[in-house]
Amino acid sequence: DTGVSQNPRHKITKRGQNVTFRCDPISEHNRLYWYRQTLGQGPEFLTYFQNEAQLEKSRLLSDRFSAERPKGSFSTLEIQRTEQGDSAMYLCASSLGLRDTYEKLFFGSGTQLSVL
Amino acid sequence: AQKITQTQPGMFVQEKEAVTLDCTYDTSDPSYGLFWYKQPSSGEMIFLIYQGSYDQQNATEGRYSLNFQKARKSANLVISASQLGDSAMYFCAMRPSGSARQLTFGSGTQLTVLP
């Protein structure tokens, strides 16, 4: 399977615990995105990497959230001191690049986080 | 700031018929791109079609076409000859040109194709 891979598929945690998600993009893709999707809504942008550099962060990304992409390959998204409001689907996407406004994103199946 | 509005939370269509999913947008950027993505129950968002704001012709990709009306700021998705496998959530999204990279998504339309 050469698509975008996300692990785990589901994560249940207690409020206050830390969680970490992993995303493996398509190997030749240099751009990687994290989005968050709550029930009945479209995805919301969280952060974006070009290679290993984190170039943009949404205001949605509080200090409890941190993302890394060491060596420009896989990426991790960590949430510290989880809150019930963090419950959502976390989607990762990757792409080959941007041409003007055109960019075809390839998404993973997401990690569904439930905070109890 | 950009905003995408999808006013149809749910739509039903008979198999083999055509269906139009509505999308309106708001932006002050002179150059932008419009996208449609499909999200089946498995959760993976799948790219369907793209329209650039300066493209003269409406985009088409197989059974998908985009009815782009720039003056009305609408970018409706038309699916011809619906198939059972088309049942999914459909999201309209926009990206402006310039330094901002992120897509802004609408709230989606749940399409159900009836046999």
Structure description:
The complex is a heterodimer of chains A (116) and B (115). Chain A is built from no helices and eleven strands. The mean pLDDT of chain A is 93. Chain A is globular. In chain A, strands 2, 4, 5, 6, 9, 10 and 11 form a seven-stranded mixed sheet that branches. A four-stranded antiparallel sheet of chain A has the order 1-3-8-7, with no helix packed on it. By secondary structure, chain A is an all-beta fold. With 115 residues, chain B is an all-beta fold. Chain B has no helices and twelve strands. In chain B, strands 2, 5, 6, 10, 11 and 12 form a six-stranded mixed sheet that branches. In chain B, strands 3-9-8-7 form a four-stranded antiparallel sheet, with no helix packed on it. The radius of gyration of chain B is 14 Å and the shape is globular. The model of chain B has no long low-confidence stretch (mean pLDDT 94). At the A-B interface, strand 5, strand 9 and strand 10 of A face strand 5, strand 6, strand 10 and strand 11 of B.
